[in-house]
Design goal:
By secondary structure, the chain is an alpha+beta fold. 40% of the residues lie in helices and 25% in strands. Strands 16-17-19-20-21-22-23-24 form an eight-stranded mixed barrel, surrounded by four helices. Strand 2 (66-73) and strand 3 form a beta hairpin. Mean pLDDT is 80; it is low at 1-14, 232-238, 245-253, 293-312 and 571-579.
């Protein structure tokens, strides 16, 4: 055999736990880029196949336990186990790995791609190394027939092609990062300008373009001073950008009054509030604009008429985010067959200093209308994932947490990246997070959002349709969304014992879910009678006050353990134990 025990012993030892965690984080970040659809990468892979006169060339990413085939020429395959694979060995070095005959090499002889049909015996691959030095995958060529090796020219060409592939991936990652930095602005309904560290307008949304009477493309790249004239401040006549750059945060989030240059010598008064922004090239600012009516003043000191209610709503929400007034309560989801609580839904609450604990219906509309859906939605996702990880470390038998998506999150280019980051940071498997979408989202017909959900579903993230059966889009949505779960609306469950129509509809929806291979979850279960009827209908999971009300994170372990004890008592009391 060409492989030997010496070769096995000389293979590089695994990276440190910290380095491997960073490498895996890099892999999952790249998975969100949609590399499969990139024509440049496909051209590189095709060129590699041509160079070697081989039918099979592949660009792979090496995840924690699997080898993912991202771009392929020839034989199609989605993934393989990482252990013992050619590419897993390739990323252990900065050099090209050549395996003339995998069947004759001790390192790979029992590998699935070598041992199973169709067998792939020859391999040559170069590692794909990121700018921070992590090998995330390989560019390689494989062949079912063994070869004597490769020429120096082929080896150099393979290295160059791998470098070109990584350069292209880096370009895509940079574009993704830039888009992610601006993604929240795309769903912002208020007129808004994003200003970079150099004082130039990085982004202007449609509302700002309309207010300022300029095209979005025209505004981008202009100096902030050229659009918003300097005004009197405590330190003299300075631009807002100058104030922000010098760290005078006393003006942050407070209304300031300025004159906007509309072009062609036209002007209009505007009210501006300033917030920070992590711009791609350093610290920048976001200027939210508000049309304002000037009250004549000889000293050019302007007063402005504005709805106090609108301003208070925005200020209260901004304060709530800044001061951690939002919190999550968790409600258990119970297996109707066993009675065990195996999952929880995260439900947001607002602990307002004046009004006390508020339920979502008291503030979610304002959150969405005032542009706070993205920051609040990402916080909910991160907080819920982190709490699930903490409970699992404590030994709590929870399999997943469900979080509700805002429309802005669904439409955001950052959705896949944010979900993958929440999984990676908390070391959770993809199936441990379930994203709940509503009919409002289904009616958007947003192809970008659908692509994001399909990508996440491919990775194993669960997708649930909430309040199923109540709207117009429910049935059509089953055909386009990559669903794993149907949540039956509480309105059907409430009268299931007394209303024959509700019972028939509920039974039909449970059967539909079962036939489609989806898990059914009934919401709003409050009585043992409802539970028993749903069990007879074959419903898989129940959620409602019967099993537990939504509780704060510190109270959930007791609630879950109490459910465990109740389930165990029910099993012990069956005839099996008393026969």
């Amino acid at each position: 055999m060409t492989g030997s025990l010496v070769e096995l012993q000389q293979m590089k030892s695994p990276a440190s736990v910290e380095d491997e965690a960073k490498r895996i984080e890099g892999v999952r970040r790249l998975l969100a880029l949609g590399l499969r659809d990139d024509k440049s990468l496909q051209a590189i892979v095709t060129a590699l196949a041509t160079l070697f006169g081989a039918a099979n060339a592949i660009l792979t990413l090496v995840d924690r336990d699997r080898l993912i085939f991202v771009v392929q020429e020839g034989r199609r395959r989605q993934e393989l186990p990482r252990k013992g694979s050619f590419c897993a060995a390739t990323i252990q070095s900065t050099e090209v790995l050549v395996v003339p005959d995998g069947d004759a090499d001790l390192r790979f002889a029992d590998r699935p791609i070598v041992d199973a049909q169709p067998r792939m015996r020859f391999y040559a691959g170069a590692p794909l190394i990121t700018r921070d030095g992590h090998a995330v995958g390989a560019l390689c060529v494989v062949d079912p027939k063994p070869r004597p090796g490769i020429s120096e020219h082929q080896k150099n060409a393979l290295t160059v092609l791998a470098t070109l592939a990584m350069d292209r991936i880096s370009e895509l990652e940079d574009a993704w990062s830039r888009a992610s930095a601006l993604d929240c602005f795309e769903t912002e309904t208020r007129p808004m300008l994003a200003v970079n560290a150099a004082g130039a307008i990085e982004y202007a949304n449609g509302a700002a373009a309309g207010l300022l009477g300029r095209a979005q493309a025209e505004l981008c790249g202009l100096a902030f001073d050229a659009v918003i004239a300097p005004g009197p401040l405590n330190a003299g006549c300075e631009t807002l950008m100058s104030v922000y750059a010098h760290g005078r945060d006393s003006h942050i989030s407070k209304p300031l009054f300025r004159t906007a240059n509309l072009g062609g010598g036209r002007e209009r008064p505007v009210e501006i509030s300033v917030q920070s922004w992590a711009a791609p090239d350093g610290a920048g600012m976001i200027a939210f604009l508000e049309p304002a009516s000037a009250l004549a003043a000889p000293a050019q000191t302007l007063g402005f008429v504005r709805s106090a209610a609108g301003r208070n709503t925005q200020a209260d929400l901004a304060r709530a985010l800044d001061h951690d007034e939002f919190l999550l309560h968790y409600q258990p989801q119970v297996s109707i067959e066993t009675g065990r609580a195996h999952a929880v839904e995260a439900l947001v609450r607002w602990s307002d200093p004046q009004r006390g604990l508020l339920l979502p219906k008291a503030f979610l509309i304002d959150v969405e209308e005032n542009g706070f859906a993205l920051p609040l939605g990402w916080w909910i996702l991160d907080e819920a994932a982190g709490q699930l990880a903490e409970w699992r470390r404590q030994g709590l038998p929870l399999e997943r947490v469900s979080v509700n998506l805002f429309t802005a999150q669904y439409r955001s280019d950052a959705l896949v990246r944010r979900v993958l980051n929440a999984l990676s940071v908390n070391d959770l498997a993809p199936e441990m997070i379930e994203l709940e979408v509503t009919e409002t989202i289904a009616l958007l017909n947003d192809e970008c959002g659908l692509r994001s959900l399909r990508c996440l579903a491919d990775l194993g993230v669960r997708i649930a349709f909430d309040d199923f059966g109540t709207g117009y889009a429910s049935l059509s949505s089953l055909q386009q969304f990559p669903l794993t779960t149907l949540k039956l609306d509480r309105s059907f469950i409430q009268h299931i014992q007394t209303n024959r129509s509700d019972a028939v509809i509920t039974k039909s929806m449970i059967a539909l879910a079962r036939d489609l291979g989806l898990e059914s979850v009934a919401e709003g279960i409050e009585t043992p009678g409802q539970h028993d009827m749903l069990a007879e209908m074959g419903c898989a999971v129940g959620q409602g006050f019967l099993y537990g009300r939504p509780v704060a994170q510190e109270h959930l372990p007791d609630l879950i353990l109490r459910r465990e004890n109740d389930a165990l008592a029910a099993v012990v009391n069956t005839s099996f134990f008393h026969a």
